[in-house]
């Protein structure tokens, strides 16, 4: 079994051929030569493209090494998310969405309900106990009137670590509970990346991610994907992509594949920097609510250690400053950090998350994405900006 660093460098590449590039360039084609019957690997640009094929094969190797997986690439993370939901749900079905997930989930809930789909929102339990014979509910009942929101559900959506709260949820336990009730399970694996966590190995039916973030890592590509080991589920997702036309461009697909080669290096450097930053922030009196799964004091640390790959707890650190004005002074004082949304890029970014209005966070809540800068330089810049923000 090869290591992750070796796998990301070789994933999805064609067999070596004399005088040909290791990673062929993007194929720009709306149509392909198609004599005779309308069949073959490449027929029309909305259906498939050789550049997608290589990227999808590469991601499949990362999400499911050693066991075949089917990956479908999309034009964005939201395109991937909606493909899973709308390819699997019909009017009268029920879906369970997390109560603390990505900010567009409430808008998605409204759309699902308009199509006659019942949406149950629940804050998943962060109880990190291993499965035992002792009874425990897989979701927090306080967030839903039903005694068990999974009863009769068609699909359970899990986001772990959650964005922006960074709670970690037990995929194996929740997947077992959902499957026992006949529900499918999808996991948003964006923050962890397949090098930090493999949902399909933990029982999930779908691993979904925004490749815009850490997977591509340079802040210049919009991309999403869905991976599954079930060919029938993959066919449904692929048909949805074809039907709505949510296809990635060949240049974006090629850039994404090119970027995979440095994923292991970036993940390792970002995780080191995030730990250094979280540790430094924990000692600041004006900073509260520091969250990072790698911190031994973090509420999710014990589960993260068991579920995620060692030392790969993600690049995001969240914390709270006293108020909106304090947070904005801090962001303005930073010199090595861009005030920008998204996360997972090689350049560190930070933002006052409440400015978007879609997350249940305090006005001074900061979501900080650690890049690949030297941790010592980044921590020094943050501490200096914190000192300046106190004025």
From TrEMBL:
<dbReference type="GO" id="GO:0005737">
    <property type="term" value="C:cytoplasm"/>
</dbReference>
<feature type="modified residue" description="N6-(pyridoxal phosphate)lysine">
    <location>
        <position position="213"/>
    </location>
</feature>
<protein>
    <submittedName>
        <fullName>Cystathionine gamma-lyase</fullName>
        <ecNumber>4.4.1.1</ecNumber>
    </submittedName>
</protein>
<dbReference type="InterPro" id="IPR015424">
    <property type="entry name" value="PyrdxlP-dep_Trfase"/>
</dbReference>
<keyword id="KW-0456">Lyase</keyword>
<dbReference type="GO" id="GO:0019346">
    <property type="term" value="P:transsulfuration"/>
</dbReference>
<dbReference type="InterPro" id="IPR000277">
    <property type="entry name" value="Cys/Met-Metab_PyrdxlP-dep_enz"/>
</dbReference>
<comment type="similarity">
    <text>Belongs to the trans-sulfuration enzymes family.</text>
</comment>
<dbReference type="GO" id="GO:0004123">
    <property type="term" value="F:cystathionine gamma-lyase activity"/>
</dbReference>
<keyword id="KW-0663">Pyridoxal phosphate</keyword>
<dbReference type="GO" id="GO:0019343">
    <property type="term" value="P:cysteine biosynthetic process via cystathionine"/>
</dbReference>
<dbReference type="GO" id="GO:0030170">
    <property type="term" value="F:pyridoxal phosphate binding"/>
</dbReference>
<dbReference type="InterPro" id="IPR015422">
    <property type="entry name" value="PyrdxlP-dep_Trfase_small"/>
</dbReference>
<feature type="region of interest" description="Disordered">
    <location>
        <begin position="124"/>
        <end position="145"/>
    </location>
</feature>
<dbReference type="InterPro" id="IPR015421">
    <property type="entry name" value="PyrdxlP-dep_Trfase_major"/>
</dbReference>
<dbReference type="Pfam" id="PF01053">
    <property type="entry name" value="Cys_Met_Meta_PP"/>
</dbReference>
């Amino acid at each position: 079994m090869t290591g992750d660093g070796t796998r990301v460098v070789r994933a999805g590449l064609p067999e070596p051929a004399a005088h040909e590039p290791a990673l062929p360039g993007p194929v720009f084609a709306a149509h392909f030569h198609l004599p005779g019957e309308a069949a073959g690997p490449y027929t029309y640009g909305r259906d498939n493209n050789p550049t997608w094929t290589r990227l999808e094969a590469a991601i499949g190797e990362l999400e499911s090494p050693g066991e075949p997986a089917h990956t479908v690439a999309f034009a964005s993370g939201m395109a991937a998310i909606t493909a899973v939901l709308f390819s699997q749900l019909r009017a009268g079905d029920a879906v369970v969405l997390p109560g603390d997930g990505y900010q567009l989930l409430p808008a998605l809930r409204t759309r699902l309900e308009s199509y006659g789909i019942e949406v149950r929102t629940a804050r998943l339990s962060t109880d990190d106990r291993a499965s035992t014979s002792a009874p425990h509910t897989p979701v927090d009942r306080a967030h839903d009137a039903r005694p068990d929101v999974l009863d009769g559900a068609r699909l359970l959506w899990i986001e772990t670590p959650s964005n922006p709260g960074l709670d970690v949820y037990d995929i194996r336990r929740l997947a077992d509970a959902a499957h026992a009730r006949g529900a499918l399970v999808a996991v948003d694996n964006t923050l962890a990346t397949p090098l930090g966590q493999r949902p399909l190995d933990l029982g999930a039916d779908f691993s979904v991610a925004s490749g815009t973030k850490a997977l591509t890592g340079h802040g210049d590509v919009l991309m999403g994907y869905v991976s599954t080991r079930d060919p029938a589920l993959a066919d449904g997702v692929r048909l949805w992509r074809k039907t709505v036309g949510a296809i990635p461009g060949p240049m974006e697909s090629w850039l994404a594949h090119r970027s995979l080669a440095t994923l292991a290096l970036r993940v390792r450097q970002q995780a080191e920097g995030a730990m250094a930053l979280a540790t430094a922030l924990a000692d600041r009196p004006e900073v509260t609510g520091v969250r990072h799964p790698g911190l031994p004091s973090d509420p999710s640390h014990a589960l993260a250690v068991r579920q995620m790959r060692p030392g790969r707890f993600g690049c995001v650190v969240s914390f709270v400053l006293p108020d909106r004005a304090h947070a904005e002074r801090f962001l303005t004082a930073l010199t090595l950090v861009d005030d920008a949304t998204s996360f997972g890029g090689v350049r560190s970014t930070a933002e006052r998350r409440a400015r978007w209005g879609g997350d249940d966070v305090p006005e001074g809540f900061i979501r900080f994405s650690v890049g690949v800068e030297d941790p010592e330089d980044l921590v020094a810049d943050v501490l200096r900006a914190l000192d300046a923000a106190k004025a």
